[in-house]
Amino acid sequence: MPKRTVLSLLVILFLSFVVLPGCDLMENLFPGKFSSAPKVTGKTTTATTPVADTAEPVLGTVLARVNNNVITLESFDEKVKNIEALSPDIKINTLDAKKAYLNDLVTQDLLLQEARARGIDKKKDIKDAIEEFKKQVLVRQLVMDETTGIAIEPADIEIFYNQYKKEFAAPEEIKAREIVVSSEATAKEILIGLLQGGDFVAVAKERSIAPSASSGGDLGIVKKGAKFDKFYEVISTLEPGQVSQIFKGPEGFYIVKVDQKKGGTVPPLTEVYDQIKNGLLQQKTAARIQELTEKIKREAKIEIKEELLR
Fold first, then answer.
1. Where would I find the beta strands (DSSP E) of 24-150?
2. pLDDT in tens, 156-206
3. Rounded to whole angstroms, what are the CA distances from 259 to 185, 235, 237, 256, 268?
4. What is the enclosing helix (H) or strand (E) of 135?
5. Mapping DSSP to helix (H, G, I), strand (E, B) and coil, where does residue 156 land?
6. pTM for this one?
7. Which domains can be identified in the chain, with CATH numbers?
8. Residues 6 or more apart from 130 whose CB is under 8 A from it?
9. Strand 44-45 versus strand 62-66 pairing type
10. In this structure, what DSSP letter does residue 210 have?
11. Based on the number of CB atoms within 10 Å of its own CB, is 249 exposed (0-12), middle (13-18) or buried (19 or more)?
């Protein structure tokens, strides 16, 4: 966006939690990429580690059993819905895709059971990581609850576009040539010849004193700031094929010709509508979270000992 709100570090962290998927979602987004899974061929599969019979009542339609764990059809459909909402390019809407995804869920469940059987979930660093993830999920949900209902009106988008539309234009690219001579009289003579049909490239090679003479005065694409200000000002006013009047520069007297121009045009609102809408939505969301942060900070008792930082 042309104009951005400067956020505090805390607000940036809050916003990052909104889009932070769980570890299982990352696996789900790339089904079949990270494991060689046993194929789901029927209602049950065989786990590598037996689990004690501690099954709980099932709420829903049983889609698969993995030892004593159950994957319900309802939970499967909900996971599919969430994945497709997060990544519209991913579609799990065919029988083969659903079988592959279910196979991945079974594999994931087996690996989870194996990890627990080995006591990995009891290790301090793992417990700490799980606790940290729980905090992130809670904060993410708070942010989602707080920002539900934020909307951007079409009028807001149009106002923003009209105010900043020039900044949506692609940078202008101007391909130009130059002839530089040491005296104004010589420049006038050359300009008359060019206006009478003289070949700019041939004249530049023969009479220009600039380093570009050997290439017929060709400068390629001239970006703003690459030459002195007057040079860019002049070529900006010329149309392709047009030759300038004489103007003074650091190396002498200049005559320039524009070979090509592209870019610099402002795209219509329809092309940048979604871009503006998303940017304004991010700004409003950030502002709402900043308001919440400042409110709870005012109401909280906070003690910070910065002298302990090293």
1. 44-45, 62-66, 69-72
2. 999 999 999 888 887 788 999 999 999 999 999 999 999 999 999 999 999
3. 25, 10, 13, 10, 27
4. helix 124-147
5. helix
6. 0.50
7. 9-147 (no CATH), 170-262 (3.10.50.40)
8. 121
9. parallel
10. S
11. middle
